[in-house]
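Reading a protein record of the kind used here takes little practice once its layout is understood. The reader may check this reading against the record printed directly beneath this paragraph.
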Amino acid sequence: MSAPSMTKFIIKRPWLRRWMVPLANWYADAAGYRKLGLRADDLIPEESPTVMQALKRLPPKEAYDRVFRIRRAFQCSLSHQLLPKDQQTTPEEDYLYLTPYIKEIEAESRERGDLEAMVVNKKKNNKS
């Protein structure tokens, strides 16, 4: 589910970070999801089993807020309107709330796969 990221590479280089942060902020604003009151993690498709499991692990309030944001954005989309400025998502409110759960589930899945593929050999005692 998670795509490769260059975030760590960019953050370690101050000159590159100074150049990329304004570009990233412009892109997030141009995407338009904040104008509908959504957060970045609201755009993750729910079809994969990993995301479905991550949604089940969300705290009840966060899950309710997510459904509310998606329904409100859908209603705005149907009426071809944007939310008023005071109801739009600000960059400070747009934090990753679902991605940590997804990464945790992917790590558990990798660990489970490693454990299932593990071969245990019993040591033989050769007494001569």
